[in-house]
Write a structure and sequence with these properties.
With about 375 residues, the chain is α/β, with parallel strands linked by helices. It is built from 15 helices and 15 strands.
Length: about 375
């Protein structure tokens, strides 16, 4: 299949997650993504193992983030290596990096420098908190960004302490925003012949992700408060949230309180109208919570689904993988490393012309493609 970005060359100076996750998606869409890595150590994510899981000499999560790419080693403080990289820039379409402000300037590879080499380049730079300001040199780490941006107060119940997401949500969303900015700049370049400087920060991505919450905050005198019972979203009224049953948990989404009263056989809910779902949110949720404890998941879900109400069981990863729903989306992607060891990861979630985008190309060994790239491009 002719992938839409086939023929484009991306030089990835990025490390850890935000920049490399953008490179992963660009590679899945057909771009040739070349990681520019230090000769010793390379991307530090190579040694940042999660749960002590490794594939060969590199961490399993490095493989998950960097499959489908090539590795070119260069010491950017070495004039000869730097000259080779500048020659690569002549052939490149996109550059990404997520170093702290000032690092690429010292090397001589800031946007203004690269634009002189290749005026058509699309140059995407990710920082933690922007190029200027009091935090410009602080570490742009995901948990710190969740804490600073208010994200840690979207999860958990009112009265609980702040609760972060159980994944690197800010890095991931910033990677997605990077891809959006790069693709927009490439479309403009196709029309004008001129490249662009695309700037992103983890902080701005974290705030933008909460656009509903911030817009509400700007206009609501009452402020934003998590529900004290089964919080699912601080902006939504009862019954929205996750509830304990006699043998597990179920999720209830938006639904009519009068209809829910009938389906769950809760006479107490008769005193509430649909207009009360936010003002009396915790009262309503507490009544629902007490009733749901009296029967099993299967009992309640059968009644809720028969009435067409939006409810679901709660899966962990093991249960999800056994479902027909999971099997139907074919999200698992098997990757072979050195033709021997295989590992499972997820595929690109995008389909093009009905085709799912799988890739068997593994993450590169450090410097694996240096010689090949020199021969082909230099």
């Amino acid at each position: 299949m002719f992938l839409p970005l086939k023929g484009l060359i991306v030089l990835e100076f990025s490390q850890y997650l935000s920049g490399p996750s953008a490179g992963l998606r660009l590679a899945d869409l057909g771009a040739r993504v070349i990681k520019i890595e230090r000769p010793v150590g390379g991307d530090p994510c190579r040694k940042l193992s999660i749960k002590n899981l490794w594939v060969g000499e590199d961490a399993l999560n490095f493989h998950a983030i960097n499959r489908n790419k090539e590795s070119f080693t260069a010491d950017l403080k070495n004039p000869d290596d730097l000259e080779l990289v500048k020659k690569l820039l002549l052939k490149a379409d996109v550059v990404t990096h997520n170093f702290r402000p000032g690092v690429m300037e010292k090397i001589g590879l800031a946007y203004s420098d690269v634009q002189k080499i290749n005026r058509r380049i699309v140059y995407a730079e990710i920082t933690g908190y922007g190029r200027k300001g009091p935090w410009k040199n602080k570490p742009g780490q995901d948990l710190l960004l969740q804490s600073l941006s208010g994200l840690a107060y979207t999860t958990g119940d009112d009265g609980d302490g702040p609760m972060p997401f159980g994944l690197s949500i800010v890095d991931s969303i910033c990677g997605i925003h990077t891809v959006q900015g790069v693709l927009a700049a490439l479309i403009r370049r196709q029309k004008t012949g001129v490249g662009a400087y695309v700037e992103l920060s983890l902080l701005e991505s974290a705030i933008s992700l909460q656009f509903e919450l911030f817009t509400t905050h700007y206009h609501s005198k009452a402020g934003i408060k998590r529900s004290a019972v089964s919080n699912g979203n601080p902006l939504l009224g009862a019954p929205y949230g996750i509830y304990k049953t006699a043998d597990g948990h179920i999720a209830l989404a938006m639904m009519s309180i009068p209809q829910l009263r009938e389906v769950l056989s809760i006479d107490e809910l008769a005193q509430y109208t649909q207009e009360d779902v936010f003002a009396k949110r915790d009262e309503i949720k507490a009544i629902i919570s007490a009733q749901l404890l009296t029967q099993s998941n299967a009992y309640w879900l059968e009644r809720l689904k028969a009435a067409g109400l939006w409810a679901s069981e709660i899966n962990d990863w093991n249960r999800l993988r056994k479902t027909d729903l999971y099997k139907s989306v074919q999200i698992e992607n098997s990757v072979a490393v050195n033709g021997e060891e295989r590992y499972l990861t997820t595929r690109c979630p995008i389909r093009i012309n009905g085709k799912r985008l799988f890739s068997d190309k593994p993450a590169p060994l450090l410097g694996q493609h240096t010689q090949k790239i020199k021969e082909e491009l230099l």
